[in-house]
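The protein record reproduced below.
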Amino acid sequence: MIVVTTPTGTLGSQVLAALLTADEPVRVIVRDPSRLPAPVRARVEVVAGSHGDPSAVDRAFTGADTVFWVVPSAPGAVSLDAAFVDFTRPACDALVRHGVRRVVGVSALGRGFVGEAGLATASLAMDDLIAGTGIAYRALAMPAFMENLLAFVPVIRSQGMFFSLVDGDRRLPTVASRDIATVAARLLLDRSWTGQDSVPVPGPQDLSFDEIARIVSDVLGRPVRYRRLPPDEFRAAMSAAGMSDAMVQGMVDMLLAKNRGLDTVGPRTARSATPTDFRSWCEEVLAPAVSAAA
């Protein structure tokens, strides 16, 4: 039995689809079961609730062999610890109590980075908590998702821009969620691995935001520019979007750390370099999203 968290999310839904294609027994934890497509509900066991709730994970992990763990977005969280470590504590207790053998979790690059890195630091602390249970664990170490750009579709349409805190010429890795889902599903279906390790998934290439803007402009056939915001202006924009002060600061600290090398990884290998390049993702995902927003 494989348990999938966030099965209606961008990543969790793709992992779930891959597991069902492999005809594996799957159980999901979901706040609102009605959000699962009817054909999916018919093929999985459903535990209704939050996977931060002790009773929900207790039910979900009974008889489970492997868990796909994703901390959900928590823009209003009172602290980074609350969003990551505290949210994960009930699951760790249940993992041990029910003898779950393996966990595949979604985390961040940056292990060994010196300095505060906000959301990334909190995500790595979550890894340490899970690893402390002694269960076999693979932490998928993520850079930025290509899908993050979808949040800027309205401003790309209206102002021809997107923004962040990172220098425009700073090259960073970026990865498509579908490629992460492929790596996650492969690990979830492989019952041979043991121990604990980090699995970097850095995508096929590093790109600067200036390069991303040029690719987006070319694909959309309209000028799109990148703007590096001052931290105070960025904080105001995130607060206006509904993020708590703690989560805004966590985002700021992470982005500034990326600018100082947080996401630096070793040479890509045939195993770590995923196939979806940014231009292809723009053509297949971003361009239709921009057109649909018209």
